[in-house]
Specification:
By secondary structure, the protein is an alpha/beta fold. Helices cover 36% and strands 16% of the residues. The structure holds adenosine-5'-triphosphate.
């Protein structure tokens, strides 16, 4: 029976079909699964046709409707049909005639190139640096031939580049400049939808086609003999990296990264990734390890004529559909792309057979860290020893709920049973309760400190006392007065305390803790200290592997529990997080907590969620603040450009005179989004405080706009699925929406100074608290997939990049 696969690069075209044509396409695709090969080829309605003689014999066109044609690859070997494009009838054959599909035997993938565009170029060797006019005839569909994947310079193999420094291959800017008009690409986010639709048909080819640039940085002052981009990579190396002779000859004439990018839509996708990585200055070895090896099939080489295997192996771009419902889901965009398509770097990390110890995945917002964590859980669950268990943990209930939902989509029920998904606090509570069943978690610790300080007329401001408890005593795991008197105990605190003062502070903190113990309600910090102690005495530990998501917000005491809950060894801890998004004031040193990451730290750099325009603007919120390493706040994250898969409108900013005017403008913005056919549930309005959240919801409702208050502690995100969600900035963490409105980005609200330690009390803590609030705004803005609207009244927040 024939099998149908869908090349995800054609999905954006589906959005352009009207309803009857979509239904017709679904009916046709079902036939591919239901009929025998002979019946299919002879079917009168489908009118399956080969291309004229001399063109790719594997390409067939078929009729969807009077005006739309499907293009598919119908390999001679096997029975897997690959739907490669949907086009207006009168242009389908011309487009299909330009394309060629080949198996890349080194990477085992199926690639498409625009053979006409590549073949028509003038002899560029004669005039290096001038892209051929043929580039203008590059793929009409507007989809990029190149995945937006990025070679992640990894700290994992520091020695690797010792003999080949990045940039050595070329005298280029280290990051290749983006093409002036990046073609929306689905090669790495295949089943998603671009915020910018690609050109619908070949008639639009003029605009969708690459625009070769000759004014890139490398061309500003053209030398008499421009240096060639890939001059220092030998033919043998190119071959080992999967570059075929045609592309090798092509790349021998390219002079700048910009020129290379302008050719992306015409180049075979995976080979373009290799060339892009080389152009970014990475060594051949690293490109092999990070681009080629992750793509290579486990089964070994794929023969050039084994299209069937190659189609199934091209998991980044091709979806093999198994039933009719799945066809519908895929075409209708209901399909969760992340379940199947991982960027090769994501896949490499999630499915690496073994890490010799704790491993860390970091990267900016929307780079798929959670996706990698979920796939890692899948891999670990599939390879559990008898009686083994995996813990998947995160910071808040809302995050844990969402992890649970997604895990259930990814894992079969029998594997889900081997995984506990709980907050880190719940984990500690369960451990402690086994020994002390009457213990509960206290959530009013700071208030408790305040009462104690008032009652006992302590000379210390309560903020100071609480901060000493949280950021010194429990963060550093100090258990004795002697420990607190140690000269290094308070390193980094800017308010000095002499020995007598330390004794007084210690006494006060110890008294508060004793009272909390007596009440049998422990604050999270103490609960974790107790859990870590209990676990430290056990010979049998509950988990084989621990996977942590949103790791940036965990307190050191929580890390001690996680360190103690799993035996040290291979694959013990897999940690995903991003310090840009740290919205709680926890600074953590993994090394001091016994979590040794060195050599197993991996950055992700392709953003799948947010448009380039939104991310670029939001990054301005963090300007001037160094992005620190997850688990090592004293080090800054290595630089490297982040790439966005999506493109769309610039964020919209609005400053009102007063709050009522700001509310009116918000209502109009939401109404306009709804008018743009963005569903209410795809819109979220977020504000700094509960008060604002409630008045926004009331205001929207008063204007007949559907608004639901979303409280992550009380609601699951599916509870409020029919209205525009209105929530706080903390509430939006871990979520994403097509459109986000950030309301009240006003100077008095951001930063909210009553939540910031005063600089007189502790300068470093003051800065850390400000940074946490800056990150809060950043997190809120980067939840937007396509549209971002930010408003304020009066003086705008100093965090805004205005
Ligand atoms: N390989 C992929 N293909 C398609 N979509 C992907 C891929 N990886 C991630 N995504 C999508 O990108 C979005 C962001 O992914 P995810 O939440 O894992 O990122 P993150 O790095 O954890 O984000 P954040 O740190 O901002 O919470 C999600 O919609 C996810 O489905």
């Amino acid at each position: 029976m024939p099998q149908l696969a869908i090349d995800a690069t054609c999905l954006p075209q589906y959005d352009k079909l009207d309803k009857p044509t979509r239904e017709r396409l679904l009916a046709v695709t079902r036939k591919f699964r239901e009929l025998s090969l002979d019946a299919l080829l002879a079917h009168p309605d489908l009118r399956i046709r080969s291309l004229p003689a001399g063109q790719d014999p594997r390409i067939r066109t078929f009729r969807i409707s009077d005006s739309w044609t499907g293009v598919m690859l119908a390999p001679e070997s096997g029975e897997t049909f690959l739907l490669v494009h949907l086009l207006p009838r009168d242009s389908a054959e011309a487009w299909a005639g330009d394309q060629r599909h080949d198996v890349n035997p080194v990477m085992g993938t199926l690639e498409r190139r625009d053979a006409t565009a590549l073949g028509q170029g003038p002899d560029r060797a004669a005039e290096p640096g001038t892209p051929p006019a043929a580039a203008a005839a590059a793929p009409a569909s507007g989809e990029s031939g190149g995945a937006p994947g990025h070679l992640a310079p990894s700290a994992a193999e520091p020695a690797e580049d010792a003999d080949e420094t990045p940039g050595q291959l070329l005298d280029l800017p280290t990051a290749a400049p983006a093409p002036r008009e990046p073609a929306p690409s689905f090669a790495a986010a295949p089943a998603g939808r671009s915020a910018t639709a690609p050109a619908a048909d070949p008639a639009a080819a003029g605009t969708a086609a690459p625009h070769p640039q000759t004014d890139g940085p490398g061309d500003a002052h053209p030398a008499p003999t421009p240096e060639l981009l890939f001059d220092r990579v030998g033919d043998r190396d190119l071959e080992r990296l999967g570059i075929d002779p045609e592309i090798r000859d092509f790349c021998r004439t390219v002079t700048t990264a910009r020129e290379l990018h302008s050719w992306a839509p015409a180049l075979p996708q995976d080979q373009f990734e290799v060339l892009r990585a080389l152009a970014e200055g990475h060594s051949v070895q690293r490109v092999r390890d990070e681009v080629v090896v992750p793509r290579r099939p486990a089964v070994g080489a794929v023969a050039r004529d084994d299209y069937d295997t190659a189609i199934r192996h091209t998991r980044e771009r091709v979806i093999v559909v198994n039933d009719n419902q799945e066809i519908e889901d895929v075409l209708a965009g209901e399909f969760n792309a992340w379940r199947i398509y991982l960027h090769p770097m994501q896949r490499e990390l999630a499915y690496r057979p073994r890490f010799n110890g704790p491993a860390k995945v970091s990267g900016g917002p929307g780079t798929g860290k959670t996706v990698v964590a979920l796939h890692r859980v899948k891999y670990l669950a599939e390879h559990l020893p008898l009686d083994g268990r995996v813990l998947l943990t995160s910071f808040t209930n809302a995050l844990v709920e969402s992890l649970k939902r997604n895990l259930a989509l990814l894992l079969p029920p029998e594997l889900v049973e081997d995984v506990d998904v709980v907050t880190t606090d719940k984990l500690a509570l369960d451990v402690v309760k086994e020994v002390h069943p009457d213990i509960a978690l206290r959530t009013d610790t700071q208030g408790f400190f305040a009462n104690y300080a008032r009652q006992h007329r302590l000379p210390w401001p309560v903020d100071f006392l609480f901060s000493e408890y949280r950021h010194v005593v429990t963060a550093r795991g100090i258990t004795t007065l002697e420990g607190y008197l140690d000269p290094d105990a308070r390193a980094g605190r800017t308010t000095p305390l002499n020995a007598d003062q330390r004794r007084e502070v210690w006494h006060a903190i110890s008294s508060v803790r004793a009272m909390m113990r007596t009440s049998r309600r422990l604050p999270a910090e103490d609960l974790h200290a107790e859990a870590a102690r209990i676990l430290g005495e056990r010979s049998e530990l509950p988990y084989t592997n621990v996977v942590v998501d949103e790791a940036q917000d965990l307190h050191p005491a929580q890390w001690r529990t996680l360190r103690a809950v799993v035996r040290r060894g291979p694959d013990d801890l897999f940690i995903a997080g991003d310090n840009r998004q740290r919205i709680y004031d926890n600074a953590v040193s993994f090394r001091q907590l016994g979590i040794e990451i060195v050599g197993r730290s991996f950055p992700l750099r392709v953003n799948y969620r947010t448009t380039e325009q939104i991310l670029r603007w939001a990054d301005g919120i963090l300007r001037g603040r160094p992005v620190t390493e997850l688990g090592d706040s004293s080090a800054t994250e290595p630089g490297g450009a982040m790439r966005c898969v999506l493109s769309g409108p610039e964020p919209e900013l609005y400053g009102a005179h007063d709050e009522p005017a700001e509310l009116d403008a918000l209502a109009e913005r939401v109404r306009a989004w709804l008018g743009d056919r963005i569903a209410p549930a795809d819109i979220c309005v977020t504000a700094r405080t509960n008060r604002l959240r409630d008045s926004i919801a009331a205001h929207l409702r008063a204007r007949s706009l559907p608004a639901s208050i979303f409280k992550p502690k009380e609601h699951s995100i599916t509870d409020t699925a029919h209205g525009v969600r209105v929530t706080t900035m903390h509430g939006v963490k871990g979520l994403e929406f097509r459109a986000i409105a950030v309301f009240g980005a006003t100077a008095e609200a951001l930063p909210q100074l009553d939540r910031v330690t005063s600089a007189e009390l502790d300068e470093n803590q003051h800065q850390a608290d400000l940074d946490a609030q800056r990150s809060l705004l950043y997190v809120a803005c980067t939840r937007a997939r396509e549209r971002l609207y930010v408003s304020w009244h009066g003086t705008p927040s100093p965090f805004l990049p205005l």
